[in-house]
Amino acid sequence: MALEPGASEGNIIVLVKPTPDINKVRFDVERGRIDRSSAELEINPFDLYALELATRLREILGGRVIAVSMAPPHAEKALRDAIARGADRAILLSDKRFAGADTLATSYTLAMAIRKLGGFRLVLSGEKSVDGDTGQVGPEVAEHLNIPHASFVHRVVDVDEDSITVESDFGDGYYLVRLRFPALLSVSRPLTFRGESLEPRIPKLSDVLRSRRARIEVWSADDVPGIDFRRIGLTGSPTRVVKAFYALEEGRRPVVYKDPEAAVEEIIKVLRSRKLLR
Which residues contact 216 (CB under 8 A, 6 or more apart)? Predict the structure, then answer.
């Protein structure tokens, strides 16, 4: 089902991925997965910029900011942080049947949840996540929803009731794009909005207290109308991790020579073996 351009009620949906502290999290090398229960989850840094942009756009476009996440149950704290940072509503998609999802299954699940929510003007996501670094979920969600999208957005030039104009940095050039609503943006950092540099806000104590009282809606697969169970979780994931391993750095192996002449001869020999000296 395609969404008609302009047929939106003004809501802004932010895709929030709770990610573990990479310095503390454990990896299941045998199954090629991150053990997300081994470390506290916090909002992916790129998604914080998407959330901040959403709150600024709400001042212009109206509507509500809705944070949507697919994660384990203990990700609820991260969604409360999203509310403390300006979201009006938070929805956690949590079900054992969602586990093991690759980017395709994840984006499909998120898109189906967005369809359940109904009218919206804009979907925002971070460019990528620090624990995956694929940059695929945002654009894939847009494709599932059949709406226009722009990635690597580092500057929002202008916005009105019907469209948003952004600049994307593709490395080899900058692209100025105007998208009619509804649309999706994957934002980078640093991020500017109408010439102003955006930084994620630090919640005030009153915001934190308000978020503790907020209701986090938890949806299972059964709560998402029309979802195809063959396309979610591990079953719906064509990507398979064949092997996972720790990339260990090899330490230095110093050699000490007391004889300077012997040291010079050995250095020359090493340089020649590596074809760095003829």
Answer: 76, 79, 80, 90, 91, 92
In a domain, 16, yes or no: yes
Amino acid at 250: E
Round to whole Å and give the CA distance between 137 and 38: 24
Model's pTM, two decimal places? 0.80
The answer to whether residue 230 scores a pLDDT higher than 70 is: yes
At 98-149, the pLDDT tens digits run 998 999 999 999 999 999 998 899 999 999 988 877 889 999 999 999 999 9
First to last CA, the chain: 67
CATH number of the domain to which 147 belongs? 3.40.50.620
271 assigned to some structural domain = no
Task: With residue 277 as reference, give the H or E element that holds it.
Answer: none
Would you state the structure tokens that stand for residue 126, as one six-digit string?
Answer: 């971070």
CB 97 within 8 A of CB 231: no
Q: How far is CA 26 from CA 43, 59, 98, 102, 172, in A?
A: 18, 41, 20, 19, 36
Tally of structural domains, the chain: 1
Q: What distance in Å separates the CA atoms of residue 158 and residue 265, rounded to the nearest whole number?
A: 65
One-letter amino acid at 211 equals S
Check if the beta carbon of residue 221 is closer than 8 Å to that of residue 232: yes
Q: Is the bond preceding residue 190 a cis peptide, omega within 30 degrees?
A: yes
Residue 153 domain boundaries: 12-231
Q: What is the DSSP letter of 276?
A: S
Closest among 122, 141, 114, 44 to 85, alpha carbons compared: 44
- Asked, for residue 96, whether it belongs to a domain, the answer is yes
